[in-house]
Every structure is written in C-alpha cells, then in structure tokens.
C-alpha cells in the first residue's frame, strides 16, 4: 500500500452551494459607479458675503453636466423665486450666470443633471450687503 493522500472531490450539491456563495459575494462587492454631480465650488460661496449690484454666479461640479436640463433658481429675501439664466458656453462642468441683487439674504437652489443620468440638487446661501 502507498501512503498517498486521499483527495476528496466535493459532491455536486456542495459545489453548487460554493458557486452560489461566490456568485453572491461577487454581486455584493462594490461596483465602480459613475459619480453624481457634486458641487465642488461656488461663487458666491456658501454663507458668503457679496456687495450689491451685478453678481456673477459660477457653480463648478466634479463631473460633466447637461446644461440644457440643469437649473438655477434664486430665492429672494421676500421668499419669491426667479430662474437664473444659465450661459450655454463655458466648460462642461461649470454653470454660470449673473443677476442684479439688492442687499439681503439669498439662496440659489441648483438642479443638475449629470451625464450619468442622475439629478442632484442643493442650496447655496449667501448675503448681499451695501456696495
């Protein structure tokens, strides 16, 4: 008799269970996804202070955005709202526009459609002071 190790092959049901566990682990593993558009920088800055007059607006995101389907909405001190016209030109990750503002507390709500097809939104609050 030889002293060879005996190798056991797993039974078919055991192999099926192993395959199912490996498949489940593969499905649960993190999958790289396209990032949603995240605001990286804004002018005016969050909680910033700017002088009254013509205010330039520039919102830079971490990815390309679909400008025609994105929006900027300004909330005035009296809580009335008005859309901000977005310039169609410029880099594909930046929304720009401008508005004439008087002193007070304002908010710009942004709605951005990223090129991955996901809509994200947020608010930037700022204060306008006397020039």
Describe what this molecule looks like in 3D.
This protein has one helix at 12-28; strands at residues 39-43, 48-51, 53-61, 71-75, 81-84, 94-101, 104-113, 119-129. The radius of gyration is 27 Å and the shape is elongated. A hairpin with a 5-residue loop joins strand 7 (104-113) and strand 8 (119-129). The chain has 131 residues and is mainly β.
Topology overview:
Elements: H1 12-28, E1 39-43, E2 48-51, E3 53-61, E4 71-75, E5 81-84, E6 94-101, E7 104-113, E8 119-129
Parallel strand pairs: 2-8
Antiparallel strand pairs: 1-3, 3-6, 4-5, 4-7, 7-8
What can be said about this structure in brief?
With 131 residues, the chain is mostly beta strands. It contains one helix and eight strands; from the N terminus they run H-E-E-E-E-E-E-E-E.
């Amino acid at each position: 008799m030889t002293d060879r190790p005996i190798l056991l092959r797993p039974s078919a049901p055991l192999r099926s269970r192993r395959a199912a566990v490996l498949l489940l682990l593969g499905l649960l593993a993190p999958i790289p996804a396209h990032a949603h558009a995240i605001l990286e920088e804004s002018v005016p800055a969050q909680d910033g202070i700017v002088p009254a007059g013509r205010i330039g607006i520039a919102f830079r995101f971490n990815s390309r955005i679909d400008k025609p389907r994105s929006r900027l909405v300004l909330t005035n001190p009296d809580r009335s709202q008005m859309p901000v016209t977005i310039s169609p030109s410029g880099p594909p990750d930046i929304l720009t526009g401008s508005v004439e503002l008087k002193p007070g507390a304002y908010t710009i709500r942004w709605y951005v459609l990223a090129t991955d097809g996901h809509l994200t939104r947020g608010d930037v609050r700022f204060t306008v002071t006397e020039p």
